[in-house]
Amino acid sequence: MKNIFEAPFILRMRKVTQNAYRMGWDERNGGNISCILDEEELKDYLDLNHVIRTIPTGFDATPLIGKIFLVTGTGSYFQDIGFDPESTLGIVRIAKDGTTAELLWGYKGGGKFTSEMPAHLMTHMARLQKDPNHRVVMHCHPTNIVAMTFVHELTDKAISHSLWQMITECMVVFPDGVGVLPWMLCGTNEIGIATAEKMKEFRIVLWPHHGIYGVGTDMDEAFGLIETVEKAAQLYMMTAHLPRLNTITDDQLRLVADAFHVKAREDFLD
After folding, report:
1. Residues 107 and 178 in one domain
2. Among 114, 142, 164, which residue terminates a domain?
3. Burial class (CB in 10 A: 0-12, 13-18, 19+), 260
4. 239 and 127: one domain?
5. Residue 6 among the catalytic residues
6. Hey, CA dihedral for 260, 201, 127, 140, is it positive or negative?
7. CA atoms within 13 A on the CB side of 234
8. 34-50 confidence digits (pLDDT tens)
9. pTM: predicted TM-score of the whole model, two decimal places
10. Catalytic residue, candidates 102, 116, 221, 230
């Protein structure tokens, strides 16, 4: 077997979590990531017939039976993943009963996956129906987008429109806009269900006064999506208290969408 610590998926997870921590998105043990892995990626690194132990998933994930995930651990600090991945990460497979996960590697010392695992799995289920190439769910607490939820109207249209107007590239990166939930208790199946429902329309879902969920076909795409939203929110917070002398108009947003061949949410434009 090859050294799993040198596997591309482990190296990428280490890099992404270190960057997220450095950017201030994942204070203490805040934030979590899950990534669908293919058996082909794993066969040279793990014995897929060896199950270390089983862990309850917290809900029925039958549509994901047999799928394998690399997931950050509950209570783990993103700053620690870079030098101790075996304790802070785990590779799990959804078991045949749909309600437990088989631990194939990681969570050294008796740990388990993030408490947000039900929300992750529900989001994976929703996004796979929209995009068969979907692979990654990332949750974190970017400072400016969270701050924006205290001073801005909390509707999908209002938040999306304000963010689109901050940087021209926003229309290119997330023309589908941003979904917004009401405040809900985190770590529950209820917020997982609500997030998954929003994920049928959006690739970014905002949890007011808490954080953000972003998805992608790989870790770089999910990270870049959140990064773009956060940059737009930063510019909004820097300028919201000042007179608006110039802006990107809706007609200009339409021009951007046409030029880059993306489909904007026309109902979010005036």
Report:
1. no
2. 114
3. middle
4. yes
5. no
6. positive
7. 12
8. 999 999 989 999 999 99
9. 0.94
10. 116
